[in-house]
Write a structure and sequence with these properties.
single chain; 357 residues; 7-stranded mixed β-sheet; 39% helix; globular
């Protein structure tokens, strides 16, 4: 287990299991795989790998622009969303910042590097891990918070803010906001995505990647959105020639406009998430929490804790996320993502067996 999930190569070696037989419920990657149109487009254009990409990535930017309804000149490109997140935090360089707790650990890691004072907004199970918007706004004002960074939906709780709620924070506070929309495509983007606010609010930045929903972590393509000229110039000054490779460029020009693929993945994840939530809700000793991502946070009410559960499931080639590394969560919590139907059923069968008493 590394800080962000499982090392399937290490598991295969230690447990004597073939990698092909491991089902990784900790990775949060869309199990349907990449857009077939994008892969076919790559195969049809392999000759382009012998040439340099367009240095301005005009077609790629236009494809993203149409996808997120944001002006193309307000887009920055990077080697995955993590790189853009790190550079964005360096750009904002807040003296006082706020994160949710629990959340993705890299926000805190990067803020600590710039010696920012970090205020944690605790998400509590008694409130279903939801944010009390008025309470959040009051704390931002009282503590003079300059910068708020969070994932929407939040990892690992799966809770979410609507675009209208984010706009309220923008209007009622002076804080700059960085929204990590890594998992936004798994939910209703028309309601929850804040990309439509970019062109109107200079104190907002949004970051997205292509690893989770588009199932292409290997191409390392991420992008950020902002209408703040200083933000855009900061990234422009950091650019190197041909920062995005040809594989990422070719796939990106196609997959963002593959509407059939977008609909298929959304429908698959939505239906399976509802089904798995329903089935786990029937297990007396487990309590799943409603999620807007492609993962579900589950509390163990009685029986083996998450660490022991993980070891039990590893013997069956099933990998879950033990949530003890997340702040405000302990050994009674674990997280699973949605995989293919066979893997999902295998996991459910084992959970029902382990926690049936």
């Amino acid at each position: 287990m590394n800080s962000h999930g499982a090392n399937v190569f290490e598991i295969a070696k230690n447990k004597g299991i073939e990698i092909k037989d491991i089902r990784d419920f900790s990775s949060n990657i869309n199990p349907l795989g990449p857009s077939k149109k994008a892969l076919d487009g790559l195969l049809d254009n392999l000759n382009l790998l012998s040439s340099y990409p367009d240095v301005d990535y005009i077609d790629l930017r236009n494809s993203i622009s149409n996808y997120v309804n944001c002006k193309s000149h307000n887009i920055v490109l990077g080697l995955g969303s993590t790189e853009i997140l790190k550079d964005s935090i360096k750009f904002f360089a807040p003296k006082v910042s706020m994160i949710l707790s629990p959340c993705y650990s890299e926000y805190e890691n990067e803020l600590n590097k710039i010696n920012s004072e970090i205020i944690e907004y605790n998400l509590e199970e008694k409130n279903d891990f939801k944010i009390d918007l008025d309470d959040l706004i009051n704390i931002i004002k009282e503590k003079s918070v300059e910068f708020l960074v969070f994932a929407n939906p939040n990892n690992p709780t799966g809770t979410i803010l609507s675009a209208d709620e984010i706009e309220k924070i923008l209007n009622e506070t002076d804080a700059k906001i960085l929204v990590d929309e890594t998992y936004i495509e798994f939910t209703d983007m028309s309601t929850y995505s804040s990309t439509k606010l970019i062109d109107s609010y200079k104190n907002l930045a949004v970051v997205r990647g292509t690893s989770k929903f588009f199932a292409l972590p290997g191409i390392r393509l991420g992008y950020g959105l902002s209408s703040d000229e200083n933000f855009l110039n900061y990234f422009k000054n950091k650019e190197v020639l041909w920062q995005i490779n040809s594989v990422a460029e070719i796939c990106g020009k196609i997959m963002f406009s593959d509407e059939d693929y977008l609909r298929e993945v959304f429908d698959f994840i939505s239906s399976r998430r509802n089904y798995i939530f329903s089935e786990i809700s029937k297990i007396k000793n487990l309590k799943p929490h409603k999620s807007f991502g492609n993962f579900i946070l589950i509390r163990i009410l009685s029986g083996p804790n998450a660490t022991k559960l993980r070891e039990k499931l590893l013997e069956k080639g099933l990998v879950i996320r033990d949530c003890t590394s997340f702040k405000n969560l302990d050994q009674s919590y674990f997280r699973i993502c949605i995989l293919d139907d066979d893997a999902n059923e295998k996991l459910l069968e084992n959970l029902k067996e382990i926690y049936k008493r």
